[in-house]
Task: structure prediction
Amino acid sequence: MSFEGILSDFNSTAISKMMALTHDRQRVIANNIANTNTPGYIRRDYQFEDELARILKAKDADEVKNLKGLVVRDLSDEPRLDGNNVKSAKEMNLMMQNGIFYNLLSKAYNTRLNILRTAISQ
Result:
């Protein structure tokens, strides 16, 4: 396996893609928060977990690289009188959870790099 292959193995590719998708989700959540008081605004959700789970189970690196999330309107919460269904407390909680997940992914990726650095320096 080449040095480039070591840095782009399936697990590293998957972690990197999950970091990108989680980053994109953070932007969608931030947009929801920004529109908390916009009349008629319907919250958005960023979905990728089901497709990601399928791809990870198949261990298809090409599909992981090409995976894109989908922004969808979320009608699960009843709208207020102004037609807006964003609940700021819920969005802040989702933002915090998403941030924690991103940080865990970042630590996992950095751990993989540190293992490689150690192996190379030995």
